[in-house]
Amino acid sequence: MRIASTQYQATMVNALQNANARLSNVMEQMASGQRILLPSDDPVATLRLSRLNREEAALNQYRDNIGALSTRLTQNETALGGMVQDMLGARDLLLWAGNGGNTPADLSAMAGSLSALRDSLLYSSNQRDQEGHYLFSGTATDTATVSYNGTAPVGTRYTFTGNTGSQQVVVGEGVTQSANSTLSGMAQLLNWLDSAVATLQTPGVDVSNPATRLQLTTALNGLDSTLSDVNGQIAALGGARNILDTLDTNHSHVSVSNQQAMLALSQLDYGEAATRLSGFTTAVQATQKAYAKVSSLSLFDIL
User: Fold this and answer.
1) How far is CA 49 from CA 27, 42, 67, in A?
2) Dist CA 220 CA 192 (whole Å)
3) How far apart are CA 103 and CA 30, in angstroms?
4) What are residue 164's phi and psi, to 5 degrees?
5) What's the confidence (pLDDT) of residue 22?
6) Which residues lie closer than 8 Å to 276 by C-beta, 6 or more apart?
7) Percentage helix, strand, coil, to 5, in the chain?
8) The predicted structure's pLDDT at residue 46
9) Residue 83 confidence (pLDDT)
10) Cβ(70)–Cβ(241) under 8 Å?
11) Residue segments in the chain with a per-residue pLDDT below the cut of 50
């Protein structure tokens, strides 16, 4: 059977192209260190890698959320801790004011200190984050937590204008954590303190008077209740940060496992690749030599 020269040349060129493509593929694998350059190289492993990459992206997002949330909770805890100190100072003043041995001048001086602590509590209640959002207004982050109306009667000047909504942040698969604390009772406490200040500043005030003592007792009881609530929130924030630290550690371990699995699936075995490279190189050289030798033959050579 005769083979036309054009058919033979086309066959040999096709063989050389295939051999060179295999050789080029191995060299590209060795240069990149990746076993899979195209999905068709290993469809099953490609699918597994895709799933692992999606899981890794989700873990990275969870860890980013945890980092931002931990910072926010620490900021809340610090602010609440400062408010606790102010409330403890106000409590000491109210207890001292209730002592029947104080003169009206003493009570007026205490009222000045109590007024400063009241204003400090208002300022702390309306603290904002770096983006200008109110920390303790629930989900109404663009609204002040406590509003002040100087024209209203004493005891009604402060109003809670936030809400008690919870800002939930996703920190794991099906796991969320509240990012905020609320101070719904702070406005009422400020009103009680405001009334106590006004009472203590009254000329000739007498703490043995039942009405005066009722004002001081009401403010003191309200302060104790609010203080207990704020301390409870601080404890809850500390517990939440511990949980977040544990979640972050767990996510880190899963991420390491995923990365090891991805390396096992995609990393090139250089020993096996070097063997294939040598084989493909030999095949290309043999094909080239055979092509050159056969191409030089002629039917006239046998005459």
Assistant:
1) 22, 10, 27
2) 9
3) 91
4) -105, 20
5) 64
6) 22, 26
7) 70, 5, 25
8) 80
9) 97
10) yes
11) 1
- Please give the structure tokens belonging to residue 85: 């100190």
Task: Provide the pLDDT for residue 13.
Answer: 63
Retrieve residue 281's tokens: 């190189």
Specify whether the backbone of 144 is left (phi greater than 0), alpha (psi in -120 to 50) or beta: beta
Contact 220, 90 (CB under 8 A): no
Residue 69 · residue 244 · CB < 8 Å: yes
Handedness of CA 165, 169, 173, 175 (dihedral sign): negative
Contact 160, 184 (CB under 8 A): yes
Look at residues 135, 186, 138, 203 and name the one whose alpha carbon lies nearest to residue 164. 138
Token pair, residue 105, equals 């001048």
pLDDT tens digits, one per residue of 172-200: 999 999 999 999 999 999 999 999 999 99
Has this prediction a pTM greater than 0.85?
A: no
Q: Which amino acid is at 230?
A: V
∠ CA(289), CA(293), CA(295), 5° rounding? 115
